[in-house]
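Lecture 7 notes: from sequence to structure.
We start with the chain below.
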Amino acid sequence: MKQLFFLSIAALLSFSACKTSSKNSTASGSMPTFGEDFKVKNVLTYDDLLTRLSSGKEMEVQVEGLVDGVCQAKGCWMNIVSAQNPTAQKMFVKFHNYGFFMPKDLSGKNVIMKGKAYVEETSVDELRHYAEDEGKSAAEIAKITKPVKELKFMATGVKIKG
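Predicted structure tokens for the same chain:
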């Protein structure tokens, strides 16, 4: 009887520990969150962000966009586009301190991200690496021959809209 009691307590404690140690959270009625949890406020649309970043300065913001692609190796980066104009410029998103990853099947869903938006040049080697992660063919990867100035985002937290 004592053993059954102690096993029950141990099982309860281990279940509670697993629930609280998760990096991803979902409170009842809220959006699934990856990375840092944050209150949604003063959210820019992706289109608004594009116009504000034209000055070239980095900005701490919350921005909403449509996921256009996710790293298929680990979920360690994603591309965001405008929900109103999906063929517009993409924004490359990485996650602060490599501290969290996104689901690989997130393409086509809207997200709200908190973090820093900026413009940066990406080297040919890095572009080829990301193309490989995305599953592009060797021929497509070989066509990457010049660095590209890109819109980027370092996310500290991401919420997936339902």
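Points to note: The longest helix spans residues 2-20. The chain is about 25% helix and 35% strand.
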